[in-house]
Amino acid sequence: MIHHFRTILGLAVALGLGYVVAHVLLPWTIRRVLKLLGREIRLSPIWRRRLQRFRSIRRGYWAFVAITSAFTSSLFLEFYINDQALLIVYKGKWASPAFRQWADLWLPWDVPHFLPANEWGLEHEGPIKYREYQRYCNEPGAFAERIRSAEKMLEDSRTRFAEMEEPKLPPEPVRPESDDPFDLELYETDRLVWDAEKAKLADKIREYEFRRDDLVEQAALVETLRGNESAFEGGQAWVLLPVYPYGPGESLLDLAGRPPHPPLTE
Prior knowledge:
Blueprint lengths: L1 H35 L8 H12 L1 H17 L12 E4 L2 E3 L1 H10 L23 H9 L3 H22 L17 H53 L3 E4 L26
Antiparallel strand pairs: 1-2, 1-3
Helix pairs in contact: 1-3, 6-7
């Protein structure tokens, strides 16, 4: 019920802002610009009577007002329906990804709106999931739960890595200093055997090195999360989302239950 009320209230605010822009700010701006240019809009008596006649047809007039207000509101759709945040704040710095996205749509040059998550208190370099970010800011213990999940993944990775046996190549054959044909033939044979063993162990070596590097990276990510916990728990991080915080290309099929899902189901 609260979600539906918030949606209706948001639509009403959007239409109200569209009305203000289309029927208050835009006419006022046009009159001011013309006044600065030394011009003035003067309607003839015929046009005045036509406007009065149009306003007297209340159904048509208010339909015109509703349509122009809705059209004007649609020009700012990124601020109502978007998976980007209207405002995000972290340790004193702030940004508006939704405004940047809107500006990138209307301005002739590129306006980057991607924010890497590791610059806003999270551990990875990918995009921020703002609904999840809002939960970390608003729910006590939510960020600590993320840390515990990362610690469990780290512990599981350590266990799997400890069970692995490090693949080791035998010493690489050394070319003999003499030109004795027997020594050279023996070296070539040893070299072929060593190359075959190296090719055989190549996949195991790559897997071992990958898991080792991944373990180091996971440990660093956990330390990053632990260092950022105080910002989320202490109110130094918060985010403001649009009325409908979902993007047009976002799939809701990963939500629990059977589709179709009601709006704002989280």
